[in-house]
Fold this sequence. Notes:
The structure holds 2 protein chains of 2 kinds. In chain A, 6% of the residues lie in helices and 42% in strands.
Amino acid sequence: MKHSEVAEAKRRGFSVRLLAACVLLLCAGAASGQRHLGYDDLTTRQVRLDLRDLGYPPIDVIPSDCSAIHALALAPSGKIYGATSGRQSHLFVFSPRRNYVQPLGRIPNTVAVHHALAVDADGMVYLGSTRPVDNNGEGYAGYEGGRLYRYDPTGEDNRPIQIERDCVLEDLGVMVRGEGIYAMLLDAPRRKIYGLTYPNGRFFVYDLATKTVAIKGAVAESFRPGENDEREKSIARALVADDEGNIYGSGEDGRLFVYEAATQRLIKLATALPAERARLPFVVIDSFAKDAQGNIYGGTSDGYLFRWLLKERRVINLGKAIRQYRVRGLVFGANGKLYGVGGEPGVMAHLFSYDPRTSEFDLLGFIDVSRRPYYSWQAYQADAMIAGDDGTIYIGQSERRSKLFVFYPW
Amino acid sequence: MIKSLLCVLLLAVCAFGQAPVVTLEHRNFPGLHEADSAYSALFVASDGKVYAGLDFSGGAAHLVVYDPVKDTVRDLGDMIYATGENGSGSAPQSKIHVKFAEGRDGKIYFATHYAIDFDRARLVGPRSYTGGHWLAYDPRTDAISDLGIGRARNGLITMTMAKPQQRLFSISDPHGHLLAFDIATRQTRDYGRVNNWDSLCRSLAADDEGNVYGTFGEGRIFKYDVKDDRLKDLSLQIPHRPKGINSHGRDYLKSESGWRVVIWDEIDKKIYGIEESSCYLFSFDPKRGAEGEVSLLAQMALDKYVGQRTVPFATLALALGTNRKLYYAAVPEEFDYSGSKSVAASHLLVYDLARKQKTDLGEMRLADGRRVLGCNAAHAAPDGTIYFLGAVEVRPEAGKPLEIAGKVADIPYRLALLIYKPSLSEGKTK
């Protein structure tokens, strides 16, 4: 459409407007009232929630169908890295100083990065690839397996944004043949990367020093109960480490496991996640967060929040913040509160907080930004959350056309 | 000088006081006077019968048919029963918010929608909505078949048929996903989210190859590409007014930058449509150039609004007549049935594609002088008749109960089928 055509339409109406203006002089008092500001009210305090496009809109953004965010990570520099999923995965970085998302390019031969992104102390970014997950294990026949990649950020501030080109990555190889990388954790001091795979729940350890991978077993052997066509195993979507380097997650029968750093053994624990008795085989850990004292909190696929008492190897069920399943992201804010995002597929994501000092939940509403030109943009699905070094919380929308949300919890 | 100015003003007022009037026939919907709204759902089938979807907030939508030969209106069914949800306790199937489509099998396809989602509070939980159903009415058996839910907890807000493939395309509300239903296999495929709340597209168009088009964001066009079986975001924009404050108290969720209503023209092989915020009439030729070409044709607003920012939100009442003219029921005030804050008679605007000329035929009124308060659906019959579906003024009659759906501002109204014969009355004034 050409702007001159709009001008022509306006010009054609000009003579009519003159006459109408004269009439309006006579009836100006009857002019209709202004649109009241209550129309802009939403469920969340708008000054605390905002969003960023994945690039430089309207054209130079990570495309639709390629922009679902399932992985975010904080770098020591304060930058936030993200990886997308869809028809093609992309890597991006958000610089709080610059306030823009910088697309870094396509991740070669990759359509999904699920909870598998981490940044080392030296700024190197590690990401693990997979095929689409949580889909009954479909699409893995003939799959070579998810690869571990390393991205070197040196000089990225001076690079142009890259959308149609591949990101330069170092390929560290396939972690487990035929399996995608489903969850990943970097233990920087011990120079190890731990991972769980999909669809069969293999636990692997990648040694950054020797560049070798070792498979330590499976956290789930059998399909969980279901109809004849259901082929899912119970595999944690997140891992966490204690101060000794032991790694925790959940597997079959809703039980926690530990990978002991000292013995290098994968051990299934008797401790069960919070769940109704019949639902225990279906429950997995969705997310973990650690507070400043090293206390570990987790969220389950049934939507429960829990605290993991390391020494006692006991779980305390803290309850449910929202009626939906899934706690897809958990982070601690600078104010000591635990912030979470939850919600099952096909419904609407909700934000909540939990204050460990008062055991109080606070429901913060939908992930909903109302400002021009968006009014409004709602994330119905969000599957990644990370806290920035200044306490800002970043939330990754995980839909066909997604954005990075920025939440200020103060 | 002052006397001269006053004379001009007086003449102007007199001229405005004698606004031309276009008189339409109408048919009421017996027994369904409580139906309170209608959107898009009007369709003239190949046999000339006119199908309409009547909405009822808090209750059941109804499918009705008008037979112009017998001059009868018949209620074909209650959508809560048609979907098998009577007694289920779920939120009701209160709307048919889609344009109907006629399949090769002679069936009339359509879909259902909810009326109120209580600020999305009932997406889950007690009284939540099951989801809009794909449905088919078979004129031979006089039966409605339930073809299943498109997307759980979502209504189906618009629909078009890709005729070569016999697939129905719809956008779900509130999630904004593009869905495709294959009539042969009865399978629904979800192509993912195309719209957010910055712009929810209320009208889809399919071309003769089966490509499907809609809008997103700031007037951008998306395309379902049938060859590649995938969605593409085109770089084209339709003419639109940038978002901003509107003086009419427009509903917050009106997106304001997409197209409101579109029609695929089999003759020109183009889409004709009206943008929602300033009522720009445009054509979109999807086969010209790499992505297609968009052209502005006119502004289908009352003359007093042309070039202004205060154009009332566009209606869904656009039809392409057999005489190659586009007929559009424009509203002089922001209109959304009982949600309207003020009231005025609709105007019938005509755009002649051959002469490239817009004409305001005047206020739409019934034979007894009652006003047409607003329309949100239109379709042209093969014989040239233009049908509209909308709200008409109801006046109390002594000794008769007042059968109304509610009030537009303070004026009682009910829904009616409006019939306009271009060859007989076009351009005449009273």
